[in-house]
Amino acid sequence: MSIMQEEIFPWNSNFETGISLIDEQHKKLVHLVNNLANHFAQSSKPHVIEQVLNELSDYTIYHFQSEEAIWDRFLPEEEETKSHQHNHQSFIDSIITFREELALSNEKVSHELLVFLTHWLSFHILDTDRNMANIVLAIQAGNNISDAKIIAQKKVNHSTQLLISTILNMYDTLSSKTLKLMREISKRQQAEQRLSLFKSAVDTSLEAIFITNHLGMIVDANPAFCARVHKTCDELRIYNIRQLTPPLFDANNIQQAWKHTDKYGHWAGEILASNQYGIQETAWLSLSSVTNSYGMISHYSGVLSSASSLIEQKNFLETEVNYDALTRLPNRRLFHERLKQAISNSERKQTKFTVCFLDLDGFKSVNDKHGHDAGDALLCAVSRQIEKAIRKSDSVARIGGDEFAILLEELNNLEDVKPVLLKVLEHIQKPIAIGSHIVHVSASLGVACYPHDGHTPKQLLKKADIAMYLAKKSGKSRIKFYHKQELICEK
Questions:
Q1: How, if at all, do strands 442-450 and 478-481 pair?
Q2: pLDDT for 24-66, tens place per residue?
Q3: What is the pTM of this model?
Q4: Arch. (CATH architecture) of 208-311
Q5: What is the DSSP string of 244-310?
Q6: CA separation, residue 67 to residues 1, 385, 446 (Å)
Q7: Cis? peptide before 451, omega within 30° of 0
Q8: Architecture in CATH for domain 323-489
Q9: Residue 226 contacts by C-beta under 8 Å, 6 or more apart in sequence?
Q10: How far apart are the first and last CA of the chain?
């Protein structure tokens, strides 16, 4: 959230001393005080306020050093210079005290600190700094120190002192009222931001949401509700939710929902409702009543969730969780589940199956030469080739990168696996068109057999991975069974 740029201490030309360096530094100090006030008003985090206060303290010390260098140059060892230095140190001591008290996060302390800063800075500039500057300017004009002090004193008459007192009171009152106003503005902005976020969430929700007055007349609805009844929000405001035509709810079961909401404040359950096509379907309705300060119902809010929409959303989420985003093949998670199911089936039927771990040969060179988009297109093409090569009862998944896993179920003889795997290698080695290029890749396959090589998905995949590594070490387009010495080559 951005910090408001309001001024609790507005700069005024009457603050100018006539020495440009000091005036610029005074303006910077005023800016830092206003910045601190804005952070107080916005209820910024304690560590943020501490950083801002540190910046103010550091710059104040720098300013004091700059001022004292000027006074020492023109008024060395003078009483005014010593008094000025004492005032500077007193200010630093006060800031240290306020810093310790602010650790308690006390709102009263923050207000007192701002009053102190505006009061001290106003008096410091209008009284002491302007007086010292007038003396220095008089000396620069050719007067000696004594005459310069007399000239400076004449400029500070009784009316000027009265003006300083009036201005100090004005800034004291202004700082208090401005800070209070800034806090109110900040709270209002925060409330408006929350309302904006809630409105955005409601407007983008897939659920149909409506609000009515205590009589059931629609006062507001989100786009999903409007789409469901084919009316704009403005058009809906002449309708009673119970009498919306065509009927939104089935009259037989909705009356009980309203009665329950009136009595208990909330009701939720399944109802029959018409969808945007006018077809009745099972839906989930949540009704709530809103009461005013007298405890009387002033509004109702309702959320209508389509069962079909929920099913679509469920299917979408399941797809995202279980399938590879690029190739749309099952991912490692779903492949593990299918392995568990295969183990269960094999135990029951006393059959065997194999797990194959496949890694592409030459994929990296294609990816490096033609770019990642070409690499992605190649992975998709290889996925389709593997699907063509295996049986309909088998499964293929993308495990990650250019690695795939294949599940071949219900085998009476492990020798039956070889023709399928050779067919996989053959299909992968076919030329593949990627844009204007023709690319060639091959694959190394490692095979683990159930129950000989393992009894869990993790064990079987690990053994297949080891076998694939041994196949790849032996050259391209090779098949290696984990528990056999032989290598099978694609012919």
A1: parallel
A2: 999 998 888 888 888 877 777 878 888 888 898 899 889 889 9
A3: 0.43
A4: 2-Layer Sandwich (3.30)
A5: -TTTSB-HHHHHHHHHHHHHHSEEEEEEEEE-TTS-EEEEEEEEEEEE-TTS-EEEEEEEEEEHHHH
A6: 37, 82, 81
A7: yes
A8: 2-Layer Sandwich (3.30)
A9: 232, 233, 236
A10: 67
